[in-house]
C-alpha cells in the first residue's frame, strides 16, 4: 500500500501560483515517489526528469529558454529530480519561469546546501522551499491502528522511519540501514566541496550519535577529533543541510540563570543514528532509551508541526544549576514546554521556567505520546 505523504496537499496548494516549488530531503526519503504521485494526479503522469542522467543534465544546462522548453516538452508540470546535479540550474529555472509563467516547475534536491547555493540568487522571490522528512506517525496511521503504532514503537526507535525500512521489516532493516548510512556519508556530504577526510566525518557522527539529548560542546568535539573548531562547525553545517542532523538552540531571556549559547543535536532518523554506532539491541538491553525517546519525540513533533502548518520557535531550556525542560515551542505568545520520559508517569516542572508568562510544561511518555505527535 502506498502511504500518502502529508506534504502532498501542502505542495498542491501552491501549484500554478507563479512559484517554483523546491522539495528538499535526504536520499531514499520518498521525494521521487511524491513527485510522481503529484504528476499522476494532475497530469497524465509525464513531465518527470531525473537530473542524475547525464543527457538530462546536459540538456538543462542550455541557457536558452526556447531550447529548454523544446527539451522539456508541452507538460503543464515539470518535475526535476535531484536538480542540484545541473550546472547553473538556478539560471535555467529563472529563464523558464520568466519566459513561460504558466509552467509549473517542481525541483528536488538531497541537500539544501548544494541546491540552495545554485538557486537562491537567480530565483529570489520566485521559489518556495519545503522539506520532506522520513515517514511520520501521522502518515503511518494510514496503515496502522493506534494500538499497532504502540506495538511498533521499539522498531521505530531502533530502525527509524524511512519508507524502505518500514516496508522491509526487522529482517531486512539492518542491511538496508547500513547501506543507507554509507550513502549519507560518502555520496552526498563528502561531495559538496571535495571533502577528503571521511574518517574525521564518520568519527564526528559517531560522537554526535552518543550525545543525542545532551548539550554539545564544539571545543570538546574539536579536541577529541584533533581538528580545528572551524572544521567542526563546517562539518556540522554540511550534515545539517544534508538532513542527517539538526540543532536545537537554548532558549534564554534571563542570562544570569539560563544557558543561552548551547545547542543540542539530534538525528533526523534514529535508524541512521543506530547504524553509525552499530547498536540494534532490543530496548530492554540498552542504556540509551531515554535519549532515543527524546530524539524520537522531537523529530516526530517537527513533522507534525509541518503537517498542521504551524511555524513555531523550537528550543530547549536549561539553567546553570541543571534545571531543564527538554523541548519547548514559542507560538502565539505562549511558551509550551515538554519533558520526555519513556517510563515515568509524573515529574515536577521547574518553577523558574514557569515564571515566564503564558508558560506550561507537559510530560510526554510512551503512554500519552500519540496526543502530542499525531
UniProtKB/TrEMBL annotation:
Family annotation (SUPFAM superfamilies): P-loop containing nucleoside triphosphate hydrolases
SMART domains tied to this protein: AAA
InterPro entries assigned to the protein according to its UniProt record, in alphabetical order: AAA+_ATPase, AAA_14, DUF4143, P-loop_NTPase
Domain AAA+ ATPase, residue spans: 17-134
Protein name: AAA+ ATPase domain-containing protein
Organism per entry: Candidatus Magasanikbacteria bacterium RIFCSPLOWO2_12_FULL_43_12
